[in-house]
């Protein structure tokens, strides 16, 4: 849990803060062309909570934690540590996979809640300093537009994304072969597969949760 949560906090929060800033800046500039910049806080916050923060946070964790899981288990595989566990009567899946799966499914949603908050605050900062929106107005419009189901939609998605990251990371680790080079190939394959599955599953989850 420490690896998924605490050790990934800085990366996730930096990603969220600058994403929120860019979202508000781009949205505000484009809406200003139609004299609708007053809608900027609501549109940017909805997009951030429902899609951008959950997906980008999950991709960042997949790159960092998913790769680490694959490298760790892959190294154990090629050095025959997994065989040693089995010879001692320990189930490698129960010992290695289950804790990582639970950690990813619990910590990624909690991390997403923090990134939601930081992303909105980052967007608010740009709205106030660059677009001339007052702090009170920004938060007022945000809370008018955003409902609890919008917030929960993004958080629930990350439960699935967390499972994808852990399962893919563990599977590619268990199936790695060919020494150190094979572990490197498996790590790359793990990150790419996680990215693709997160983006594909995001579409279907969005259809379900709309």
List keywords for this structure.
210 residues; mainly alpha; 7 helices; elongated
Write up this protein.
By secondary structure, this protein is mainly α. It has one domain (6-209). The protein is 85% helix and 0% strand. It contains seven helices and no strands. It has helices at residues 9-32, 40-78, 81-87, 92-130, 135-145, 148-174, 179-209. Helix 4 crosses helix 6. The radius of gyration is 20 Å and the shape is elongated. The two termini are 30 Å apart. The model has no long low-confidence stretch (mean pLDDT 91).
Content of β-strand: under 5%
What is the helix/strand order?
A: HHHHHHH
Total strand count, please? Answer: 0
Summed over residues and divided by their number, the pLDDT gives a mean of 91
Q: What's the end-to-end separation, in Å?
A: 30 Å
The number of helical segments is 7
Class inferred from helices and paired strands: mainly alpha
Describe the largest sheet.
Answer: none
Oligomer: single chain
Number of domains: 1
What is the radius of gyration computed over CA atoms, rounded to a whole number of angstroms?
A: 20 Å
Shape: elongated
Task: List unreliable stretches of 5+ residues.
Answer: none
Instruction: Determine the fraction of residues in helical runs and give it as a percent range.
Output: over 70%
